[in-house]
Design a protein that fits this description.
The protein has helices spanning 11-29, 35-48, 58-76, 93-118, 122-130, 134-158. The chain is mainly α and 186 residues long. α2 (35-48) crosses α3 and α5 packs across α6 (134-158).
Length: 186
């Protein structure tokens, strides 16, 4: 029997579980189980009452549950270890810690700006698509087109299977001949 925490799950399991989770959230909470709304409500609460603890509702429980669930999953895999994300050889612990903290805060800030510009995170768009919102379907279509276009560009840039790529990974254009293999002389 395989361990469900360490085994790879088939893609169709996630594909079936995600809409069921979205519909279950809509049924139970009359709202989408998205993070952006939870963070916005939490920040609005602290803006009004900065010295009080937030109420324990489903949104604060969702935010805490994500952290606790990730920690349980990491510990259950028996591969959890505390490690700085951006180690550099010869740097002190303080330097590594500061680089990691700056990278985490910067990455979180970029995710927040992107989700605010888009109006929602992709999970919320999927939930809206399940409810047949036309704007969500336009978002998903543009997301797929952009992802395919960028993956093709990425594959051609890295030499991974684009047209004209040789087995060695170097691509030959229409006017150039592919480099010839030479054998060393004895």
């Amino acid at each position: 029997m395989t361990n469900i925490f360490t085994a790879k799950w088939p893609f169709y399991v996630a594909g079936i579980a995600l809409p069921i989770l979205i519909l279950l959230g809509l049924f139970c909470f009359d709202s989408v189980l998205g993070l952006s709304e939870s963070w916005l409500e939490l920040s609005a609460y602290f803006e009004d009452k900065p010295n009080d603890l937030p109420p324990l509702n489903w949104q604060t429980a969702l935010l805490g549950g994500i952290f606790i669930g990730a920690l349980i999953g990491a510990l259950a895999s028996n591969q959890f270890k505390f490690e700085l994300l951006m180690p550099t050889e010869g740097s002190s612990f303080g330097t590594k810690f500061m680089r990691t903290a700056i990278a985490m805060v910067g990455g979180g800030f970029l995710v927040m700006v992107g989700s605010q510009l888009a109006g929602e995170v992709p999970f919320g768009q999927l939930a809206a698509a399940i409810q047949m919102a036309p704007g969500a379907w336009l978002y998903i279509a543009s997301f797929i087109v952009t992802a395919v276009f960028l993956s093709i560009l990425w594959a051609q840039k890295s030499g991974g299977g684009g047209k004209g790529a040789s087995k060695s990974g170097a691509s030959a254009t229409a006017g150039e001949a592919a480099p010839k293999k030479t054998t060393p002389r004895k």
